[in-house]
Amino acid sequence: MPTPGNLILREAYQPLAYGVETVDLDFNLDPQATVVTSRLKCVRNPDAAAGPVVLFGEALELVSIAIDGAAPAEGQVRKTESGLEVNVSADEVVLTIVTRINPSANLTLSGLYQSRGGFYTQCEAEGFRRITYFPDRPDVMARYTVRLEADAATCPVLLSNGNLLETGTLPNGRHFARWEDPFLKPSYLFALVAAELSALERTVTTMSGRDVLLQVWVEARDLDRVEHAMDSLIHSMRWDEEVFGLELDLDRFMIVAVSDFNMGAMENKGLNIFNTKYVLANPDTGTDLDFENVESVVAHEYFHNWTGNRVTCRDWFQLTLKEGLTVFRDQQFTADMMARASDSPAAAASARAVTRIANVRGLRSGQFPEDAGPMAHPIRPDSYQEINNFYTATVYQKGAEVIRMILTLLGREGFRNGMDLYFSYHDGQAVTCDDFVGCMAEANGADLDLFMRWYSQAGTPRLKAEGAWDAATGTYTLTLSQSTPPTPGQPEKLPLHIPVAVGLIGPDGADLPLRLEGEANAGDTTRVLNLKEASRSWRFTGLAAEPVPSVLRGYSAPVILEIDEDDERLAFRMAHDADPFNRWDAAQRFMERVVLGLAADAAAGRKLEVPQAFGHAFRALLVNESLDPAFVAETLALPSEAYLLERMQPADPAPLRAALIHLMREVGQAMQADFLGRYLDLEVEGEYRYHPADAGKRSLRNLCLRYLAAWGGPTAIDLAAKQFEHAGNMTERYGALAALVQSDAPQRTEALAAFHDRYRDDALVLDKWFMLQATAWRWSDAAPTTLDQVRALMANPAFSLSNPNKVYSLLGGYFKSNAAEFHRPDGAGYAFWAEQVVALDRNNPQVASRMARALEGWRKFTPEIQARIRVALEQVAATEGLSPDVAEIVGKALG
């Protein structure tokens, strides 16, 4: 329900007077003039106040409307700012609505649009109203039948949700197909595809014995790059059956890849539409990370079939109900797949740890800055102006962490019981976050009322840990305190329910069995302490010597841990902490301390020196061959600049970049022999395979190469050039190219040209090429500025402002992942940002708003930088005709 200023409030939710029971859609597809006929059986909602049938519409030409087969009476249909209102008195009414749309001119990529001659849809969140007039809210669930008619030559494949009923030929070279979806769904899950595509098909048997058809549809030239996506789909099906008892409910499941797509993928019921980036992969064009991302995203969208489709959101404020839960599910799936592919229990544990570390890296670099900025919001927001702006890291990644905390509190069996109850109560319904947590609580007899504050409170909590050792009594007292900084609209914060997994490490490096005061016997070596107050203490007894605390094991809560640890203690935990996540975190904390210290020295003009203790700890991990290479690679990789900028007070990208470059050069030079030795030992023999063990070796090998190239010695550069020239797969080739580009080596120009020539006709691979140059560091003042290079690359024939992937790779890479070059002292980066945001906003506000968010956290920077950014923000804010998407981002940034 709108309020002044177009602000939508969660508390203002009201059900519509009329819902929709069935939807019959007929599409006569034409590039410039598609005619859509919709027949809606509308029924009065007994739980709602009386009112008209409310229909939303945007960018539509209304051809006709009929009520129960007759023309409406004068005044019976009223045009509104958001669509139409139809005044009727009957409890049931059939509306027949004919609209005309122009898919070829739809550059928003929302609703029905064209890509490479085919027709595609994207209806989440409010794209269906760009197809036909409809109450396209998620709480309006109906059964759909769809008839598609198109030119048979240009669109031989006609797909929609559900099961295929009929196909046939028509005069004038046209043909048709009819589809039926037997399940209730909201309109945001509607999809159609009409294009010239080919499919990889497999028939598999579900756990109940049904044979189902799986199809992955792509352009014919890409069929050799979809085997991994198909395997990922089958693995996802089996995992959901085994872990949650959830089975595919349709006779077929389809994935379609399209090159023009605003999002990563979309979970439309039975017809998932994907950005090609998350479908296509083979050894020559995809890195190990690409293979991992394909598997993860395929799983995510498939898991939505139950957590999002069968049970959906009552309103868009509940978005984390489906997204946070499904991100959590795909993270668990990825960890399980990595572990199952491992050849020993130790390797499996390491694979799980590496997956968890990757999750937390993303949270810290993407969600923490969001929580600290003007767009900070709870995982369930209380208001929004444009819903597209709330497909955020907070809703997704932090939402997944909240679900993970529920698992920690209830255990695996308790969590599964809660999921079973959730589906038994709410299958086929549109529900709220309260309904989900309520089922978890009921199934386990648990009190989660206080825990619900995670859904309503924004900001990243600070968890302070302080320990006190009493040698006389052999006791160690751990005091945990929590606080959350103010966020926009929430100046005061209440205590949260924070599960804190804790261990104590003895002087010999071994974990100690834990016994709390009042307990008769010692228990496990890791305990979950439930902090529900502002501060609380726990006393551990029966200890022979002062322990070293290992706090927040497995990253049991999405908080910033504040604990006083000197370099010696961090090095000790890097060497001995039995929790692999905390071992990694100790190394990251040490790196953070060193880098920020170097940055402070650089800002003050002091000489930069890397502490010897850090070098010793770094080398100890590098040469430790008993550790999994994937884990070592994660542990020795630098914290992201985005995260480090959040930790600087105030943030200043130039000295931070100087510190990072100095550290990499110094470490690369000091340990060149160690890096070279590990590099040579980690070579993977034989044909490429996507496997955790091989991927881990390639990851650490490429990391060694980057440190060596940063040093810049001739041996290192020759090594990178040789790997680039003789690489047998994209992981090796791209890793070598990245090492050359992130250096001042003259061979970088030759390698970039060779890479472009090899892949000039492969759009996805060229996205990597664009991204690598947009994010490149300047290792000498003589190098050209990145902004000049980005401007030049925009003139490359492969680049297009209308293709989201290209924008995200080149402009997004520069704005969001190259802080020192973007925040240049002359302000030219900001002027370029304003220019591109306004240009993008004319056609695709969703993409424009994502670029606009690059400056939302501007108040964390130095006063001099803030002054330059404000000029750019005000310039965009003053632009006439600015979309609500961008206006909300810039308006909130300016405050």
TrEMBL record:
Gene3D superfamilies hit by this protein? 2.60.40.1840, 3.30.2010.30, Neutral Protease Domain 2, Peptidase M1, alanyl aminopeptidase, C-terminal domain, tricorn interacting facor f3 domain
Q: Which cofactor does it need?
A: Zn(2+)
Enzyme Commission number: 3.4.11.2
As one GO molecular function, the record gives: aminopeptidase activity
- Segments forming domain Peptidase M1 alanyl aminopeptidase Ig-like fold: 459-563
Q: What class of enzyme is it?
A: hydrolase
* Short name of one Pfam family: Peptidase_M1
Keywords, A to Z, come to: Aminopeptidase, Hydrolase, Metal-binding, Metalloprotease, Protease, Zinc
> Which branch of life, at top level?
Bacteria
Q: Which reactions does this protein catalyse? A: Release of an N-terminal amino acid, Xaa-|-Yaa- from a peptide, amide or arylamide. Xaa is preferably Ala, but may be most amino acids including Pro (slow action). When a terminal hydrophobic residue is followed by a prolyl residue, the two may be released as an intact Xaa-Pro dipeptide
Q: What residue range is the signal peptide?
A: none
Outline the extent of the Peptidase M1 membrane alanine aminopeptidase domain: 229-454
Q: Where is the Peptidase M1 alanyl aminopeptidase C-terminal domain?
A: 567-894
Which CDD domains does the record cross-reference, listed alphabetically?
Answer: M1_APN
- Give the Aminopeptidase N-like N-terminal domain ranges: 106-189
Q: Which family does it belong to?
A: Belongs to the peptidase M1 family.
This one is known as Aminopeptidase N
